Backbone:
């Protein structure tokens, strides 16, 4: 989010779902857990944490599926029913924040100051930048955000 509070935009790969974010990130995580690697089909997942009230759906309707988390909660996951792109996650029962999937943003976030979590599950060969904030699991303030 720019300093002039310009909204951010994103959506799915096929364009059926579009959204606008009216607030920049409260936190930015790079998650190395097995689930985030699977959902991103990559070495890690990017979670752009925003207040739930910041999301404005501008086109389409996502579908949802749910999964249990390592901390015993349930994560409700929004995705495009046409192309399957994961869009955001929300811990069931939490009305405070959403975890926007970083790959769904039109302009990717700057990861230089992101917090790396679940580094105990990080793939071999990944080298984190010197001095970056990192946790072997999930920090308390994260609580199932990815």
Residues:
């Amino acid at each position: 989010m720019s300093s002039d509070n310009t909204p951010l935009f994103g959506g799915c790969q096929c364009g059926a779902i579009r959204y606008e974010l009216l607030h920049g990130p409260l936190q930015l995580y790079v998650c190395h857990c097995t689930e985030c690697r699977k959902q991103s089909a990559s070495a890690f997942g990017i979670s752009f944490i925003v207040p739930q009230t910041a999301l404005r759906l501008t086109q389409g309707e996502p579908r949802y599926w749910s999964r249990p988390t390592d901390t015993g909660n349930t994560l409700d996951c929004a995705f495009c029913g046409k192309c399957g792109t994961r869009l955001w996650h929300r811990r069931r029962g939490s009305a405070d924040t959403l975890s926007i999937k970083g790959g769904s943003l039109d302009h990717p976030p700057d990861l230089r100051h992101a917090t790396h979590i679940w580094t105990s599950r990080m793939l071999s060969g990944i080298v984190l930048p010197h001095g970056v904030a990192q946790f072997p699991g999930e920090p308390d303030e994260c609580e199932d955000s990815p």
Remarks:
- Helices lie at 34-40.
- The CA atoms of residues 43 and 125 lie 10 Å apart.
